[in-house]
Amino acid sequence: MEQHRARLTTFMLLALVTFARCDPDGQSTAVNTETSPTAPTNATAVPVSVPMNAAASIKPVQIEIYYEALCSDSVNFVKDQLIPVYRKFNKFIDVTFNPFSQGTIKDNTIQCRRDRECDADSIHACAISKISDKDKLVEFLNCALSEGFQNKTVPIEKCVKDNKIEENIISLISKCATDTNETYPLLVNYRNLATAANVTTVPKIIINKNYSELSLTNLKKAVCDKIPSKDSLPECKDIVSGSDRVVFGVLPIFIGVYSIIKMI
């Protein structure tokens, strides 16, 4: 009986050691095979840079978002990942939006994967070029994605008014989006950037010039991992670490095995 109990105890300890040796983030370590984007010299992105204020001593985390205006995955990423993180971390991050990331240009003609998506991409490109307030731009694009996906057209006026943007922006964006002389060079630029970033699916997120798969499901952790003083930031305090996940996951097993041993 005692020998059997000892064997069970040894097995339980070995199981705990195995869990403890897992990757601290609870993920297997992967080698990043993506090519880091190097934009052509004639391609310049339009950044959504945020004043650092109290965080002036912290170098902002650079986030590049390659997306499509009528793509459901792009809509969900911005709504579920970017917006909560941006509202909490806007003083620690610089965000660059790159629409038209899956579009093509053939014989000087803009082509898109989804019906009416070229029109929506044009509105996004024009909004990025016309809205100077960074916070309002982020909120406008979130509105444009959510409303645009549902209606297959971007309600410029609604997204402007809902986010308290100057009403003259409505006509500026509308005029730009219907003027190929304005939209064509903007979309060509975004296509060049997407090509340089090796975009094959959207959304694709680049953080500090490196592809970040983690960002698609946990942008907050991806951002906190890049902030040197994250341990002192209240914004990063509530992230559950990998070691915590291991403890929480193993504890019920430990209790269960211990109960079985006691019954023997």
TrEMBL record:
Q: Sorted alphabetically, which Pfam families does this protein's record hold?
A: GILT (PF03227)
What domain of life? Eukaryota
Protein name, per record: GILT-like protein 1
UniProt keyword list:
Glycoprotein, Secreted, Signal
Gene name of the encoded protein = LOC112694198
Location within or outside the cell: Secreted
Similarity remark: Belongs to the GILT family.
Q: Name one GO cellular component term.
A: extracellular region
Signal sequence segment: 1-22
Q: Which GO terms describe its molecular function?
A: oxidoreductase activity, acting on a sulfur group of donors, disulfide as acceptor
This protein's species is: Sipha flava
